[in-house]
Design brief:
It is built from 21 helices and 13 strands. It is of the alpha/beta class and about 475 residues long. Strands 6, 7, 8, 9, 10, 11, 12 and 13 form an 8-stranded mixed beta sheet that branches. A 5-stranded mixed beta sheet has the order 2-3-4-1-5.
Length: about 475
């Protein structure tokens, strides 16, 4: 097969979630791996635009060369319109595109007009406009430390908004598209998350200004709900800035218990502290320190049972980061994955920890399923990967045995940023052993205290006897 056939096959497998770009490229056995990887990444980067152009070309849709092979059409259109031309294509592919050259040009003009741009370069540089066509709602998290969902609902109704009710999971997108400019609703899974029509401007709203509501993306609200610490729990957030997830945890705890929030960067620590102050968080202690430098066996962490690990990642799921596929190199992904493995393993070393939630705003398998699989294998005697939100339809991807336990979110499927969440639970046997070990330590501590008191009493009596004598 030539370069374009192989690239189309890789693209097709990636779209079917059969592996990461990197793994699929290397397993293709194509001789020029670098050339193939670059073409696949660029084709993926502009896949939405090329796919839309393809759909507007009836001649291409009916061409036998491209029958049932949308990915090949995407690759060829990318190379024809943006890349290096079809010099590596065989005669059939070259003729196929050139035969419909006029139709492709007209489709590009039509799409540019629809997008309000005057050149193909502007259309491609504004790739995010393709996602702007998705009805991405305005998500509003209710801060339960300052108000209630009912009170926030009543406030917006007083302002003229119409309450739609709770959305359904299976029909979420259609119902969001049905939200008129004056309607708002409740998320189908998270009871503290409100959903407003796309582009609703609430940055200057008085509830936003006083911290009663937080403008937080739907995807980033999942980790705190998956962690789900009970009232009075001690929680550790190991990469806490800018503070949305930390304040969300405090909100779910009702400011009970204790949250330890670690952030190693001084400037980001300032953002974290401002967010906690604004949202009325009082149960959180912030530490400007690298979490990896923390001793998990320090007695001060004896009560830590819940840990959130939301480490640095490529950010490839963020709608504002549409350059991720070409700009994130294999080497950077490997470096990020190594760091993510190390910080997740470190969190699992805390003696009393019962649940650790791992999340990223990445769509790369290397940072998600592969990290979980590597760590899960190393801690299999103590922890298992718990299946979270079983009703959520979009699970992990790839060949990882834990893929079905994890959840993914995407702009197209879930109208939110690309995101990944997994959860490690301590096994019952391991939890029992930890409880027994803690009980033994407590018993020894009490015995030492008792022995010390007896020794002091003996010394006092001897001193008293000596004085009398």
């Amino acid at each position: 097969m030539d370069l374009y056939d192989v690239a189309a096959e890789v693209l097709q497998k990636f779209n079917k979630k059969q592996g990461s770009v990197k793994n699929l490229v290397f397993s293709s056995n194509y001789k020029n791996v670098r050339q193939l990887y670059a073409l696949v990444c660029e084709s993926l980067k502009y896949q939405e635009v090329m796919s839309t152009i393809f759909d507007k070309c009836s001649g291409l849709l009916e061409d036998k060369t491209l029958t049932r092979n949308r990915e090949l059409a995407i690759v060829l259109l990318y190379e024809h319109l943006v890349g290096k031309g079809l010099r590596h294509a065989g005669s059939l592919k070259r003729i196929c595109i050139m035969r419909h050259k006029k139709e492709v040009k007209e489709a590009c003009s039509q799409l540019m007009q629809e997008q309000g741009v005057d050149s193909l370069a502007s259309l491609l540089s504004g790739q995010s406009q393709m996602f702007n066509n998705l009805p991405i709602p305005r998500y509003v998290r209710v801060n339960l430390l300052k108000t209630t969902v009912d009170d926030v609902k009543a406030t917006f109704e007083d302002e003229g908004w119409i309450w739609h009710g709770q959305l359904t999971l299976n029909n979420f997108r259609a119902e969001v598209e049905g939200l008129c400019d004056d309607k708002f609703a409740l998320d189908p899974l998270m009871p503290d998350l409100l959903v407003f029509p796309p582009a609703t401007e609430l940055h200057a709203h008085h509830l936003t200004n006083n911290g009663s509501i937080v403008l937080q993306d739907r995807a980033s609200c999942f980790p705190a709900h998956v962690l789900n610490p009970p009232s009075g729990a001690t929680v550790l957030d190991c990469c806490a800035a800018p503070g949305n997830k930390t304040s969300h945890i405090a909100s779910l705890l009702g400011n009970s218990g204790r949250v330890l929030a670690y952030e190693r960067d001084v400037k980001r620590m300032s953002l974290l502290q401002k967010q906690l102050q604004k949202t009325g968080v009082t149960n959180t202690t912030t530490k400007c320190q690298d979490f990896l430098s923390v001793d998990p066996h320090d007695p001060s962490f004896a009560n830590v049972e819940f840990i959130l690990v939301d480490p640095s990642c490529s950010g490839s799921g963020m709608l504002s980061r549409m350059d991720h596929l070409s700009s994130t190199t294999c080497q950077r992904l490997e470096n990020l994955a190594r760091f993510q493995v190390s910080i997740l393993k470190h969190a699992l070393r805390f003696s009393s920890v019962r649940r650790v939630v791992y999340s990223t705003c990445s769509i790369n398998e290397e940072e998600n399923e592969q990290v979980v699989a590597e760590v899960a294998w190393q801690v299999k005697d103590q922890f298992h990967v718990q299946k979270i939100f079983p009703m959520w339809p979009h699970r992990g991807q790839g060949s990882s045995p834990y893929a079905d336990c994890c959840i993914r979110m995407s702009p197209k499927d879930d109208l939110t940023n690309g995101f990944f969440v997994a959860c490690f639970e301590k096994t019952e046997k391991s939890a029992t052993l930890c409880q027994e070990a803690s009980a033994k330590k407590l018993k020894k501590r009490k015995q030492r205290r008792k022995d010390g008191m007896n020794e002091n009493m003996h010394k006092k009596k001897k001193l008293s006897d000596d004085t009398v004598g």
